[in-house]
Amino acid sequence: xxxxxxATSPAYGRAPQxxxxxxxTALAIAVVGGVVAAVRSQQxxxxxxxxxxxxxxxxxxALLYGRHAETQVVDVDGDEADEAVARSARRIAVxxxxxxxxxxxxxxxxxxxxxxxxxxDTFFSWKNIRASFPDVVDxxxxxxxxFIIAEILVLGWGLLVATMRRTPGRAAAPLRWFAIVYVDVxxxxxxxxxxxxxxxxxxxxxxxxVSNPDLSIDFGPFHLxxxxxxxxxxLTLVYGAYVAEVYRSGIESIHWSQDAAARGIGLSRGxxxxxxxxxxxxxxxxxxxxxxxxxxxxxxxxxxxxxxLEGFNIARIYAGNSFNLSAxxxxxxxxxxxxxxxxxFADFLVARDQKRLQAGSG
Amino acid sequence: xxLVEARGVVKRFGDNTVLSGVNLDVDAxxxxxxxxxxxxxxxxxxxxxxxxxxxxxxxxxxxxxxxLQDDIKLxxxxxxxxxxxxxxxxxxxxxxIDNVTLGPRKVLxxxxxxxxxxxxxxxxxxxxxxxxxxxxxRLSGGQQQRVAIVRAxxxxxxxxxxxxxxxxLDPELVNEVLEMVTELAYEGMTMLLATHEMAFARDVxxxxxxxxxxxxxxxxxxxxxxxxxxxxRTAEFLRRTLEAxxx
Lengths: 362, 247
What we know:
The complex is a heterodimer of chains A (362) and B (247). Chain A is built from twelve helices and two strands. With 362 residues, chain A is mostly helical. Chain A has a two-stranded antiparallel ribbon with strand order 1-2. In chain A, strand 1 (217-219) and strand 2 (222-224) form a beta hairpin. Chain A is flat and about 90 Å long. Chain B is an alpha/beta fold and 247 residues long. In chain B, a hairpin with a 2-residue loop joins strand 1 (4-13) and strand 2. In chain B, helix 5 (141-153) packs parallel to helix 6 (171-186). The relative contact order of chain B is 0.17. Chains A and B meet through helix 9, helix 10 and helix 12 of A and helix 2, helix 3 and helix 5 of B.
């Protein structure tokens, strides 16, 4: 312990300087190791692995030690020069981490370059996407029709089930039980099983409407045959159960005093629900409702098990014929074009509501 | 015949008896104040009067109508009995004007125009005409509570129940609400109110009832109750309230 240069050694000793040496070392290893690994990576992965094992942990260690050193200096109001050293140690450590991470990523891509080119050809073959896209979009239009109608039905059906479950009185017990059993069953079944059973099963029965092979929807832009209609029915059953629960949680989240106030001015139970409780509940459940809608939109692709010629089915046929999956990628893009704006729209609705509730107009 | 006649009202929550045989008369154009410690049953009694709580025993008649746990009868009864709560309970998703006109439009079947005219008239009187289109969370507590009173008054009730309506307010906002209630009293509105504001009860009420453990121990004109309480517990309650600076 011979450090005559420092007359009264501060409590943190030479920690800042050590931290700086450590971070420079990490940066140096990162750069040198990166170059070495790059040169050798065509033959072997070892150098690249060693580089990763050494430089990244060292850089992270340097960062932590630099923070520790700076904290110590600041704690005792130490020398400002030491503080600056520790701070620069931290900055260099961050640079070392970034360099290591970037080089690791770059080397991974490089060493896997041939494989990645295959990925490009398999999933993103422009030729295949372009050839299949018109038909895929045509099929996807069926998905859109299906989810639009199913969403409208789900909104009403879910609210009806949620209301049934909350109907008071002994006489309404069967309604409540129906709602509970329905939700349990259709939330518990895999969607594809429900779709399969409804789509293939109901036509075999003698039930009115659903077993009629001429069942179709034909108005405005909507043209749907029996299978698509049964698909809508199945999706409505599945998502009605989820949405009923969403509504119920929303209704139950409204404090009972709101109902008391509504009843207090003479509104009936139903009026209180309709004008006071449900409007507030729906505002609260817009985000989870949108989530379920996005789920429903995606699950329209499941109707391919029924042989409905929706987008996925058509893309699959193309993929099978051309031994290339790019047609399915094209369909995936179609879905994203719908679902991503949908989530943004949900955010917008929530924000607008927030703003309107806070906007005091004169 | 009194406007409100309560006879032997009993209310239990599980094993906890909150009201044990309350008798109470409120005459038309009378202001009756219920005082008593927290938990003495003031709020519960109010809520029994308009059927928000179901009684376990006893009868209450309001304007000759029995308060029964029957939806249709209660809906009819509540047209005539307004209630204002401690926590305002305005509807946050509706503007002030919609809060006030909801009852008249949906219950009294008034046209939107008539309901709004009346609402504007009432809001104007309390100086909140410019807040008609604002949403409740932009109003101060005092303003919200005054809107809540207007919402009740828009139904032209025969009886107004006020459930500790100043308890949730900042002290400097209490007066604007009490002034409004005082004005209603002068106009002859029949009111039954639970309150911790003893000075207000003394100045405005025609009759004061002291509740203790679910019973009315003592009732009479405020001059009697506040200056010469006949019951020891009343005296003790008033003494403690005085020490807390509420008289």
